[in-house]
Amino acid sequence: MNQWKNFSKGLIAENAIFVQVLGMCPTLGTTTSAYNGLGMGLATTFVLVMSNIVVSMVRNYIPDKVRIPSFIVIIASFVTVVELTMQAYLPALFEELGLFIPLIVVNCLVLGRAEAFASKNTIWSSTLDGLGMGLGFTLALFMLGSVREILGSGSWFGLKFIQGDGMLLFVLAPGAFLALAYLIAIMNKFNRKNA
Amino acid sequence: MLSMFLALFLVTLISATILGFVYEFTKDAIAESRAAKQTEALKKVLPPFNNNPVQEMYKKAVDGDTLYFFPARKDSALVGIAVNTFSPKGFSGMIRIMVGFLPDGTIRDVAVLEHKETPGLGEKMVRSKSDWSVQFQGKNPKTFKLAVKKDGGDVDAITASTISSRAFCDALERAYKNLTEGGAK
């Protein structure tokens, strides 16, 4: 029961984007299409799960004073692994996201979970926490990417369903803020009803 | 105190080792996917050839970067030259384009190699996103002015992406200028 909660809280109740509003840079920057949002979300999820596992593994051996630099080194290593692997085997996705992959290192969400959760909990709980938070993040990025692609380009996953350009504003930076704000507003309404 | 040094040292040591392995492991695949992309672009912009343009490649340093020329021959007769050209004037940085010229200087085709232009706008310079760049096919820069119509040229700019279109023209112009100056064979 408790373990299930470790996983599920990241999906809606403590969703990284809609509730905690963490990691805004990749959120606003990469979500120009559903495919990009999904790719970025999954890459972040991988880093989040792996860094949570490792941080929770070494949590008793790292002195308190050097824990933040140690966590950053661990996270940065996994990000580089993702970057190299993606460049080698998914060059098309890397072309779209390449610029933003190194930014996963400074995503507050990843360090936040390492510091707030993984450094105090068992490996199993931390894995679930990372997975839940990551999937919640992915879900949010995917929704944001979908909204922006549908409104901005008139397509979804690259499939055009209207001719012409759509509302270009949504593909550009201001559209990211607008779309995010409306999604958060809708989520808040939905959450409050449940409470 | 010592344990702090030791812990941090071990963490960085292990990380560096793992990264070294991953780098070695992915190095070939990365180089391969880059080379594949270049070969694909060469095939697209050049007329049919049967030499290896990559082997005959020569470089020219201009404007703070490098142009790469790939001569294509069929049965040792020159049928075209592809130029890997660039423009630093993109809306968000460097653009690299492969452009194929016929021996008389006519543009055969173009292919974007790298860009960071806005999705949905400047991105349309890429063929898979829109047919905008088709207009360059078969044009000779001797008579076809490589500038957007707003600047008195002959190129239809991408709607709402004049800067990206200008950069595209800038890259092609740089390729053409250096190709003809360099004494095209």
Account of the protein in words:
The complex is a heterodimer of chains A (195) and B (185). Chain A is built from eight helices and two strands, in the order H-H-H-H-H-H-H-E-E-H. Chain A is mainly α and 195 residues long. The model of chain A has no long low-confidence stretch (mean pLDDT 85). With 185 residues, chain B is an alpha+beta fold. Chain B has one domain. Chain B is built from two helices and five strands; from the N terminus they run αβββββα. The longest helix of chain B has 44 residues. Chain B is globular. At the A-B interface, helix 4 of A face helix 1 of B.
Can I get a quick summary?
The complex is a heterodimer of chains A (195) and B (185). Chain A is mainly α and 195 residues long. Chain A is built from eight helices and two strands.
Uncertain runs of chain B: none
Please write the string of helix (H) and strand (E) elements of chain A. Answer: HHHHHHHEEH
N/C terminus separation of chain A? 20 Å
E-strand count of chain B: 5
Which regions of chain A have little confidence, pLDDT < 50, spanning 5+ residues? Answer: none
Shape of chain B: globular
Key descriptive features of the protein:
heterodimer; A: about 200 residues; mainly alpha; two-stranded antiparallel sheet; B: about 180 residues; alpha+beta; five-stranded antiparallel β-sheet; 2 helices; globular
SSE layout and pairing:
The complex is a heterodimer of chains A (195) and B (185).
Chain A: H1 2-8, H2 24-30, H3 34-58, H4 67-89, H5 91-97, H6 108-118, H7 123-153, E1 155-156, E2 159-160, H8 173-194
Antiparallel strand pairs in A: 1-2
Helix pairs in contact in A: 1-7, 3-4, 3-6, 3-7, 4-5, 4-6, 6-7, 7-8
Chain B: H1 2-45, E1 58-62, E2 65-74, E3 77-90, E4 93-101, E5 107-114, H2 162-181
